[in-house]
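Cross-check.
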Amino acid sequence: MNAASPEKRSVVVTGMGVVCCVGCRVDHFWQAICNGQSGIRPLDRFDTSNHRIKNGGQAWSFTPPDDKIDLATAFALAASRQAMQNAGLDAAEFDSARAGVALATNFGAIETARAAFDQIRNDEYPISSLAFRGLCFQSTARAVASGLGLKGPVSSLSLSCASGNATIGYATDLIRLGRADVMLAGGFDAITEYAWAGLSALKTMTTKEIRPFDLNRSQTIFSEGAGLLLLEEQQHAQARGAPVLAEVAGHGMNNNGHHIAHPSPNGEGTALAMQMALADAGMNPDEIDHINAHGTGTKLNDSTETTAIKTVFGKRAYDIPVNAIKSMIGHVMGAASSVEAIASILSIRDGVIPPTIHYETADPECDLNYVPNSKIEKKVDAVLNNSAGIGGCNAVVIFRRCG
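Predicted model, tokenized:
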């Protein structure tokens, strides 16, 4: 297929795949979060007796297909295959050299890497080739590309909790620029004892429920899984009669340049990223019907994100439904915003906005419409999906109804 000129290359979503604590298929995930079902409970993969935080979001129903594959890589492979199947895309329908992968992660294939370090520490030379591959952040992206026969651009990003949205924006630009026709984009991460110890050291996790935007919120809870989107150039998708779920209308990404862990004052970085996404989409704030918030349940994030939304949307901010599905699925680390992107697209498809559960007491600093505790039905033509990460990265993607 000849590449069209960049200005004519629109990018659409034709497939999605998810693995997380409330479901390992898109339909199971969607039903659970629309019903306000939480997947947070005591971890059982390792002994938590020496850990202060014992609750998390394991992918409870996931069965690894092969114990030789790192669990994090298994999540990414499973979600990628779902997305390809969901899109009805097989090898006969795309040029493999113009189909690529952009994955995001915080920890990568951490358990395989840990095994390699153990071998080194115990002087067990030579270490296995599998363990060595685990030391490379690119290993999962390569596994997905080779497993699905994708021979185009392959990249791994790590922008903390903004990683998933960042891959969607990056993959969108590759397609817009004519360097690919098909891209798998999204994030993945797994809970291991090593990762859990590190996350606990951040002191950002709560022993209670995640309560985004609630006055009594007391930090977040981390979880695991993967969220993958199959992005296609629109004409490529139309030529094969693909099911178009939404258009990637625009995206924005920046860095606060403020503090390693704290958001910038008044949410300036987040506000600018939202404005960048709107400008990229050629949209004005009045065209956004729903905001899927980063909504971590931490004091600083929720108040600054609320302020940023008011900065961008003005008085209309009070009329836009804003939700935080982390209240149900936890913070899926590198996959957080790509899983939330899937929820955003399903809101467009079904006209349903999932709730923010555990919302009981209003906070004067967080005074928007957070869709408390029960889903709402509303026609949704455009969703803005927010994400932010430790280190100050912000990434925003806007999805729009296509056609």
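Residues 249-400 form a domain with the Peroxisomal Thiolase; Chain A, domain 1 fold (CATH 3.40.47.10). Residues 295 and 324 are 5 Å apart (CA to CA). Passed to J.P. for a second look.
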